[in-house]
Amino acid sequence: xxxxxxxxxxxxxxxxxxxxxxxxxxxxxxxxxxxxxxxxxxxxxxxxxxxxxxxxxxxxxxxxxxxxxxxxxxxxxxxxxxxxxxxxxxxxxxxxxxxxxxxxxxxxxxxxxxxxxxxxxxxxxxxxxxxxxxxxxxxxxxxxxxxxxxxxxxxxxxxxxxxxxxxxxxxxxxxxxxxxxxxxxxxxxxxxxxxxxxxxxxxxxxxxxxxxxxxxxxxxxx
Length: 222
Known about the structure:
This protein is mostly helical.
């Protein structure tokens, strides 16, 4: 085991999680807020689609992203125009994969939280002339703030541990797209058990701290 080989996947995983988790958190909170306050035909189908990455095998999610972001697709061409390079097999591909798999966790956590907000409080504010943004900012958000923090931590942890979809669209390029999960896989396959144990212990420690923080937030809420 060498520290020179240990740190690059760790740092890249943290960078990917730090980029992916805010995107998943903002989009998940917005989608949950919108869905919790609207009832329309097809809402069940839409919510099922939003939750689908949570139950699909990661390789299936990765394959769908591979097709969607390929150079022949309009989305892939748009991403290549924005980044001036193909998005597949780049660190940005790992971020995209992490956002997709972390989004359902954030969405489900926040949907439950918003459903628990007393609608009479919001209606009272609207009747007093408050805008929708003011209702969300000064009434709904303070009531679900701990849920937002919990959802963010869960999204960060899910982004940090993403493997299947990341391997499909970002690959396993050492020093460029190799994250901790893919590094562990390669280390075990190559028989480098010392490195595999080092990365595994690092992941266990980080995940334990994140779950401990989530549990602390829940106890404070109660």
